[in-house]
Structure to design on (687 residues):
């Protein structure tokens, strides 16, 4: 049985547009399409630089279209979630009337049979324009644009773009065993036969680049010493859940050099955390443990299994012995 | 440049060893573990240790792997302690090799390693590839790579530069070649051209046979300066020239039936005259036609005897596989002059050409 974890990464971009794209998108909000002159040619969509020579272009805009001719096309029979239309449609390269280059866009033609190179198409405008390339919902067959009556042009300076990717990660054999051990409340490490260092859930030695397997695995203590820490005052950003100053500490497991970084010290105010402090893992309850944070993209982690580290109350280790290290 | 071995300057650089993993739909181990395996294999062939390596450069992509700074654990494949000289490009390993080659021009590195790795199995290419597109004019429209390739293929066909039959023939030839290469992924698929042409379109005019598989994989080449290269192997694959050129990003603004950047890169790398074998990174059948025509390769040039990217396409490793295969044609295949090509960006935006030569 393999363990799969699924994660979705979103990049919430807000992009500034610069003078040329800004003008193009502003015009779209008034249902006008503009290109930019480069010598005798009109480039659509407009660029700040000539695509062939790289020369900077003067802001010499010219209205084109709105109708145009299909230069190339393909048919998307089963649209996916990233496609602009939820019914079968075409992607097309369209040479708008008055333009010397092509524009890539969607073509809502109903059926594949209705699409051909050389066909005439016109834009279908979005009901409430926002100043994006998809203010043209799609092109449609014929000479006549579709949509509401054109309004005043808006001054568009930025655009939002949410990029979303979903990943499905299947754990490697080493990480699979590591996750099973963590579910059982036991930290397992792999010890390198060459350098004697121990690593959590990697499958290899990071120093000697030697593959490590099940035969190198051993149980590690779930207690150790704080070797370093930092107190973070959170600023709001997407994904930040903390609102009050919080600490992130490095914990060196007892008897080894294995450092578990970015750990939470619990049960005491952040101001009382000390280098040299002895701590013990506070495991999540059995049914709350999960391997969602373990992925094949990196190294083994205790996140999802260990909630944080509780001071044991024993005398500190001398702090000096942890001073010449980064973590 | 002459082929006479005694004409090779001491500063000449050669590929002395290569390795790549079989392209598979999903490799169970991590990207780092895949890299450890190819490094072990490539170094093992010529009896080198990691401590012999003066510089290494890796090519991989966080968007493909789905983790920020995912190249950091990948570095472990070289053994990063004591500190080593290394670099990374967010590109195919072919560009990592280019950087390593540039680094070797400095004259203080005798042996360098270039790596490429990617696990496409974790994500959906239709989502991932959007992130390489212009975020203003293209990405919001969601054009997946197969749709873009179909727009290119149609222009190629309708301009009279190719036919659907020729594309099917390329697919059939690639699959036949892949049947002889255990490292390729599509090895037992249909090879009858008429049957391929009878299959439905996936994105008109492209059929499934015109598309690459989704692959995990990793690749590695080892380079050495002249003296070391001659010590290590009897027949080094000398890098006669390597160059890469780029075009405007937006495919709608380009002539998609030509690849002037490939042509220019090949000229700068020494030209195609005398090339016996060309490994072209053409993940779509129509792109092989574009590249062959742009380079002016004659019918006597053997194209993609490995099976090509069409039958095994580990993102970020595929281009370096082409270089590895072209090098092996000299190292172990006895050829005298081969060409490797790698591409990056939508529809052949950026292209790298490497010309390799053997001693007669």
């Amino acid at each position: 049985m393999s363990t799969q974890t699924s994660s979705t990464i979103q990049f919430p971009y807000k992009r500034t547009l610069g003078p040329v794209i800004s003008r193009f998108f502003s015009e779209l909000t008034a249902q006008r399409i503009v290109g930019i002159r480069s010598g005798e040619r009109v480039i659509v969509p407009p660029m700040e630089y000539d695509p062939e020579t790289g020369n900077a272009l003067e802001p010499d805009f010219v209205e084109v279209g709105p109708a145009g001719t299909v230069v190339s096309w393909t048919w998307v029979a089963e649209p996916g979630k990233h496609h602009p239309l939820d019914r079968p449609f075409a992607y097309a390269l369209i040479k708008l009337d008055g333009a010397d280059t092509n524009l890539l866009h969607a073509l809502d033609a109903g059926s594949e049979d209705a699409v051909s190179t050389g066909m005439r198409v016109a834009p279908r405008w979005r009901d409430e324009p926002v100043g994006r390339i998809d203010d043209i919902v799609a092109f449609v067959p014929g000479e006549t644009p579709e949509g509401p009556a054109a309004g005043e042009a808006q001054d568009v300076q930025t655009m939002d773009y949410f990029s979303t990717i979903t990943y499905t990660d299947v754990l490697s054999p080493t990480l699979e065993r590591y996750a099973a051990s963590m579910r059982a409340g036991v930290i397992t490490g792999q010890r390198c036969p060459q350098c004697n260092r121990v690593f959590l859930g990697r499958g290899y030695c990071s120093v000697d680049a030697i593959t490590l397997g099940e035969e190198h695995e051993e149980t590690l203590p779930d207690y150790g010493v704080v070797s370093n820490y930092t107190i973070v005052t959170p600023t709001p950003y997407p994904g930040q859940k903390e609102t009050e100053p919080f600490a992130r500490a490095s914990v060196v497991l007892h008897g080894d050099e294995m450092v578990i970084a970015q750990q939470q010290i619990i049960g005491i105010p952040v101001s009382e955390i000390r280098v040299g402090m002895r701590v013990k893992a506070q495991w999540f309850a059995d049914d709350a443990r999960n391997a969602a944070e373990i992925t094949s993209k990196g190294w083994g982690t205790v996140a999802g299994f260990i909630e944080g580290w509780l001071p044991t109350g024993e005398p500190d280790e001398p702090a000096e012995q942890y001073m010449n290290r980064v973590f | 440049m002459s082929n006479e071995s005694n004409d090779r300057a001491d500063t000449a650089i050669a590929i002395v060893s290569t390795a790549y993993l079989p392209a598979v739909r999903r490799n169970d181990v991590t990207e780092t573990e895949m890299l450890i395996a190819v490094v072990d294999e490539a170094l093992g062939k010529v009896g080198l240790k990691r401590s012999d390596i003066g510089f290494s450069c890796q090519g991989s992509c966080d968007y493909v792997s789905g983790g920020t700074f995912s190249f950091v654990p990948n570095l472990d494949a070289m053994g990063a302690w004591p500190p080593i000289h290394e670099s990374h490009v967010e590109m195919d390993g072919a560009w990592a090799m280019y950087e390593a080659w540039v680094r070797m021009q400095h004259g203080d590195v005798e042996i360098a390693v270039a790596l490429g790795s990617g696990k496409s199995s974790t994500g959906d290419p239709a989502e991932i590839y959007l992130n390489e597109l212009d975020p203003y004019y293209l990405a919001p429209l969601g054009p997946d790579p197969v749709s873009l390739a179909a727009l290119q293929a149609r222009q190629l066909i309708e301009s009279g530069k190719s036919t659907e039959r020729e594309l099917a023939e390329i697919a059939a030839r690639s699959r036949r070649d892949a049947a002889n290469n255990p490292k390729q992924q599509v090895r037992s698929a249909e090879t009858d051209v008429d049957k391929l042409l009878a299959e439905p379109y996936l994105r008109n005019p492209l059929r499934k046979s015109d598309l690459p598989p989704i692959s995990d994989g990793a690749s590695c080449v080892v380079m050495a300066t002249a003296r070391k290269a001659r010590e290590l192997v009897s027949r080094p694959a000398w890098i006669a020239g390597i160059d890469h050129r780029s075009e405007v990003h937006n495919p709608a603004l380009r002539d998609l039936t030509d690849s002037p950047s490939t042509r220019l890169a090949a000229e700068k790398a020494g030209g195609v005259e005398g090339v016996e074998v060309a490994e072209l990174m053409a993940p779509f059948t129509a792109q092989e036609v574009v590249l062959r025509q742009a380079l002016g390769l004659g019918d006597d040039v053997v194209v993609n005897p490995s099976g090509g990217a069409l039958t095994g396409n580990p993102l970020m490793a595929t281009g370096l596989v082409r270089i590895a295969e072209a090098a092996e044609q000299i190292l172990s295949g006895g050829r005298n002059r081969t060409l490797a090509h790698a591409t990056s960006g939508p529809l052949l935006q950026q292209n790298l050409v490497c010309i390799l030569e053997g001693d007669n």
Observations:
- The helical segments of chain A are 18-28, 173-183.
- Chain A touches chain B through 65 residues (CB under 8 Å).
- Chain A is about 5% helix and 35% strand.
- Residues 18-156 of chain A form one domain.
